[in-house]
Design brief:
By secondary structure, this protein is of the alpha+beta class. The protein has one domain. The protein has helices spanning about 20-30, 30-35; strands at about 5-10, 40-50. It has a two-stranded parallel sheet. The chain starts with a strand and ends with a strand. The model has no long low-confidence stretch (mean pLDDT about 90).
Length: about 50
């Protein structure tokens, strides 16, 4: 495995939701991501869905 691409969809109507902070915290504290980060490149993003 050389690379992982992901898209996380957050279903929320909260306009104050800080997507950048959420992404930073997921990348910093998510155990699975940290494990894979040592062996491959991880790209991804978070998208909000208001419905």
């Amino acid at each position: 495995m050389d690379e992982i691409d992901y898209e996380l969809k957050i279903y929320s109507q909260d306009r104050k939701l800080n997507i950048n902070l959420l992404k930073k915290n997921i990348e910093k504290y998510e155990t699975m991501l940290n494990t894979f980060k040592s062996i491959c490149v991880i790209h991804g993003g978070i998208k909000t869905v208001s419905d």
